[in-house]
Design a protein that fits this description.
By secondary structure, the protein is of the alpha/beta class. It is built from ten helices and eight strands. The strands form two sheets. Strands 4-5-6-7-8 form a five-stranded mixed β-sheet, sandwiched between helices. It starts with a strand and ends with a helix.
């Protein structure tokens, strides 16, 4: 470890970004002493900081390694814990993934290690909240047939809910609006995407005539190719990662729709 450069690491807050940090640990010989989202970090006195740019190719390479070395439960734990709101989650998940490349499929047996125990705790909390919301999300059907639901979860479970309702309401158009974070999952009967949606949109939705305008804005964003923003849509859940989530079975969904 003596040849590694001890630094504080800043990244964009995405899961792909965190995997890019793992890549930098191995290939750039960095030794992160903390991992923080760039826009919210508080600098520690005496710590040198470097910013790691998100690189989808590097992230995919790390994920491929995780799939090979770790159990599917461990891969799921890493992503679930990442969705928590705890300020220490980034560093804990980073340490968990690095440890996974050392311990392999036995990783989760080492709960005496503090960051492994922390990831388990965070993942359980996230999955518990997502499970409850799957039963408590309430959609309102608009006059033009769009289903709208607003939520305010403590954890960022919007992507887990979207994969769940894509399977349950695959033939309907719907919007799940996370008012707390100002984002929404929008589904057009073929695909869903997550995009910015300010809390004020909920007041528009409260007006029966406002749904049509609300949907039109989201529909344009998801349908018009020139206005697509794949980077934003993949901000938290890269397309290649969905198949690793127990809530989302792509093969089954494709078979049902064919």
């Amino acid at each position: 470890m003596s040849d590694r450069r001890a630094v504080g690491v800043l990244f964009d807050g995405s899961f792909s970004g965190l995997l890019s940090v793992v890549h930098a640990y191995y290939y750039d010989r960095l030794l992160p002493v903390e991992v923080e989202e760039q826009k919210t970090y508080q600098p520690m006195l005496g710590t040198e900081y470097v910013t790691i740019a998100t690189d989808e190719d590097k992230a995919e390479a790390v994920l491929a390694g995780m799939k090979k070395k770790l159990s599917s439960d461990a891969v799921h734990n890493a992503f679930s814990a990442f969705l928590h709101y705890d300020a220490t989650r980034f560093y804990a998940v980073f340490q968990y993934i690095v440890a996974g490349f050392h311990y392999g499929r036995a990783l989760d047996a080492y709960e005496q290690i503090d960051y492994i125990l922390a990831v388990h705790r965070l993942a359980r909390h996230v999955n518990s909240e997502a499970h409850l919301l799957k039963g408590f999300v309430r959609f309102m059907k608009t006059k033009d047939g769009v289903f709208y639901a607003d939520i305010s979860p403590k954890c960022d479970v919007l992507h887990i809910l979207a994969t769940h309702f894509e399977e349950r309401l695959g033939n309907e158009r719907w919007i799940i609006h996370d008012v707390r974070r100002g984002s929404a999952a929008v589904y057009n009967t073929r695909e869903w995407a997550v995009m910015d949606a300010p809390a004020e949109a909920a007041s528009i939705a409260a007006d029966g005539d406002g749904y049509e305008a609300l949907w039109a804005a989201f529909y344009d964003a998801i349908e018009i190719r020139e206005r697509r923003n794949p980077k934003q849509q993949r901000r938290m859940l890269p397309m290649y990662f969905r198949k690793h989530m127990t809530e989302h079975k792509l093969d089954a969904v494709r078979a049902r729709k064919d």
